[in-house]
Each structure stands twice: as structure tokens, then as C-alpha cells.
Amino acid sequence: MSKKYGLFPAIEPHHTGRLKVSTLHEIYYEVSGAPDGQPVVVCHGGPGGGTSPSMRRYFDPQKYRIILFDQRGCGRSTPHAELRENTTWQLIEDMEQLRSHLDIEKWLVFGGSWGSTLSLAYAQSFPARVTGLVLRGIFTLRQDEIDWFYQEGASWIFPEAWEKFIAPIPANERDDLLGAYAKRLTSENRREQLEAAKAWSVWEGSTVSLHPSMERMKSFATDHFALAFARIENHYFINKGFFEEDDHILKNADKLKGIPGIIIQGRYDVVTPMRTAWMLHKAWPESELVTIPDAGHAASEPGIISGLIAATEKFKK
Fold first, then answer.
1. What letter does residue 280 receive in the DSSP assignment?
2. What pairs with residue 66 in β-bridges?
3. Where a domain ends, among 184, 214, 241?
């Protein structure tokens, strides 16, 4: 990448709506950019992270019709932090409902972190609906990826943040931190729930970028964000992404045949280490892997921003 890109100017959506996707769930969505532009759908991270206005700014608003949506249980979707009827396969069906609702035949799919998981699973399920994939911080929800970040691995790099993460969990329960957190995040004791949710959320907020951001850590510690983020993430991870096999995404890489993709990966990504991006790239010949040498996991890091926008500029042509 010779040219360095920055975010496009901030824009507001020209259409917002709510889509009833089940008897229980209703998702928020918004459309911005060019009404007749190339459709692109953004899969946010987490699961449970929700969308933010900055996500509109990775696309040329004169060329793209930009669709953002909050996945079940988070952001402005309702009910908040709800775990019932909340699986990967239901989110994929929600994307199809939304595509049909907006009368879109095919779209570019853009996602980072958990958003890359959902983007890949969607593309493998509905390849004919995908014009291309722009992915960041590849995560395929294999057990070794989960263990690295929530049991042992990343803890060696961020021991001070790890100490705060494990603080709510008694020493005799720390051999299964996912399970210990699940008990607390689904507890009927609201105070216990929030304590666990904030510790879980702040751990990720403390590790996502090469340079720490106090503003990010504060936002990750707010009650509303932390509760959905922690509960829904833990729910998906305990249930192994609702995949039948541990390596479902990589095993089904052949279903991406014919779909072009660009993978943007920070060399020093501690949340979703580069090994997984490399494995996906090797299994998916149509993909291009772009390694950012001075970045971690966050979409807001300058090198990641530049890489993602270089990718969306390439796809608009």
C-alpha cells in the first residue's frame, strides 16, 4: 500500500428503520451514502458490539450505499442483551431478511473480528449474494482462538489487564474462565452481572490496539455496552459459535470459491492473532492478505483504516 488513506468525512444516514426478524427480536438498521450506489453491508464485532457512526466512514459516500445494522440483542436492537433466539445462523437469516427488505440483489460484505466470522459464515451460506469480502482481524471461533484470549496466551502479554479480568472469579474457578463468567453473566443478581460484564468488556478494550485508548476503555465499561457485549460474546463462545465443527469456517473455505476478498490484519493483533488470517488466506486462493506491520486489532488504528479504505476503493472500481 503506497497511498495512505484516512476516514471519509462523517455523514448521517438518509434512512433508518427497524426490522422484526422474529417474534422476540427487532433489529435496527440504517442506510447512508449514495441511494443508488454499490451496496455494502457492515457486520460489526463482538458479537454484541453494535454499530457506531464511524463505521460509515470506510466507504466513499458518493459511490457506496452503506448499510449498517445492530445484530440481535445489542446496539439499538431489542430486546437488549437478550440471549434467547440468538445464534450465528439466526444472524445470517437476519442479513438475508434485511437484504430482501432493502431490495438488494447482491452486496459487498465488510466485517472485522467477530464481524469477519459472521461475514464468512454468511458468504459460505449465500455465496451468490456476495460480490466480495473486506475483512479485518480474522476470527473463526475455534477453541484454540478462544483459549488464547480467555484462558492463557494474551494474559502473558497484558498481565496487568489480565489481573483485573480474573478478579471477579475465585481462584478455584479459574481453570474454566468462560464457564465461570457464564454463571455470573446469566445470574439473576444484577450487581454480579454488571461486575462481570464490565471486567469482561474492559479486558478486550484494554488489548485491542497497539497503543491503549482511555476513551475506548471508558466506553467499554459503560453499563449498556458492557452488558450486551459480555453476555452475548460469552453466550456465543460457550456454544462454540453454534458451529457443528470446531474449524467450520476453514473447513468450508471451498464455498468461497469465486468470491474475491481482501484481508486486513495487524501484525501485532493480540485479540485475533495473525495465524488465523494466514490459515484462511491459504485456504481461500481468491483472497489477498494485507499485513499492517505497526497495528493491533482495532479498526481505528491508522494502518488498519488505510488498509480497509484501500480495499473498499479497490472494490468500488
1. H
2. 32, 40
3. 241
| Whether residue 47 has a cis bond before it, omega within 30° of 0 | yes
Which among 292, 300, 50, 297 is positioned nearest to 154, based on CA atoms? 297
Characterize the bridge pairing of strands 261-266 and 130-136.
Answer: parallel
Domain boundary among 176, 209, 241: 241
Place of cell 483504516: 305
CA-CA-CA-CA torsion sign (100, 102, 103, 109) = negative
Residue 284 lies in a domain: yes
Cα–Cα distances (Å) from 150 to 4, 74, 113, 140, 158, in that order, read: 34, 21, 15, 15, 12
Domain count, the chain: 2
pLDDT in tens, 227-260: 999 999 999 999 999 999 999 999 999 999 999 9
Positions marked catalytic: 113, 269, 297
- 149 and 55 share a domain? no
DSSP character at residue 8: P
Cα dist from 199 to 18, 113, 206, whole Å:
31, 20, 10
The span from the CA of 273 to the CA of 258, in Å, is 26
What average pLDDT does the chain have? 97
pTM greater than 0.85 (yes/no): yes
What is the spatial distance between Cα 250 and Cα 267, in angstroms, rounded to a whole number? 20
- Arithmetic mean of pLDDT, 1-23: 94
